[in-house]
């Protein structure tokens, strides 16, 4: 697992003074990140505070398993997608919504960072793994 960096970059591993970079094209990842950030800025305005507060309550409930929280997050994303313009690719919009929700939850209750981050990564890996792979492949070409 890479360390979380606030500037959007992955941390490097130092070995003999050299930075070890992952075997991906960093420029491709930056292009995708910029596109997703632009969409996220647009979608950010669509998410109401009550939606975020509801998710915060689920994340704070220690009686709920990560699986239950992931299912709830998935339901919220599916409900929010209904308000998104239909000209936007649905999978991309759902991916960005998950990331924007994560940001809003962590901004509301920073102590939830680890649980929210882990749940979001799990959700994205399950729901969007193939889509993300396809998106990276498309930008590389």
Strand order of the largest sheet: 1-2
Q: What Rg is obtained from the alpha carbons, in whole angstroms?
A: 16 Å
Relative helix content: 55-70%
Number of self-contained structural domains: 1
- CATH architecture verdict: Orthogonal Bundle
- The CATH homologous superfamily is named Blc2-like
What name does CATH use for the topology?
A: Apoptosis Regulator Bcl-x
Helix tally equals: 5
Helix-and-strand structural type: mainly alpha
CATH C-level category: Mainly Alpha
Shape: globular
Number of extended strands: 2
> Which blocks of ≥5 consecutive residues have pLDDT under 50?
4-22
> Whole-Å distance between the termini?
27 Å
Largest sheet at a glance? 2 strands, antiparallel
What order do the SSEs take from the amino end to the carboxyl end, as H and E? EEHHHHH
| Overall pLDDT confidence | 80
Subcellular location: Cytoplasm; Mitochondrion outer membrane
GO biological process, one term: positive regulation of extrinsic apoptotic signaling pathway
Keywords: Apoptosis, Cytoplasm, Membrane, Mitochondrion, Mitochondrion outer membrane
Main location: cytoplasm
């Amino acid at each position: 697992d890479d360390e979380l960096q606030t500037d959007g970059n992955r941390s490097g591993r130092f070995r003999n003074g050299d930075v070890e970079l992952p075997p991906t094209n960093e420029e491709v990842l930056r292009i995708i990140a910029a596109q997703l950030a632009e969409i996220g800025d647009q979608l950010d305005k669509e998410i109401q505070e009550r939606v975020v507060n509801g998710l915060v309550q689920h994340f704070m409930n220690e009686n709920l398993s990560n699986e239950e929280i992931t299912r709830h997050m998935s339901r919220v994303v599916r409900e929010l997608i209904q308000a998104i313009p239909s000209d936007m690719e649905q999978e991309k919009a759902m991916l960005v919504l998950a990331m924007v929700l994560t940001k809003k939850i962590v901004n509301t209750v920073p102590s939830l960072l680890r649980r929210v981050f882990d749940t979001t990564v799990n959700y994205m890996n399950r729901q969007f793994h193939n889509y993300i792979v396809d998106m990276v492949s498309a930008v590389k070409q």
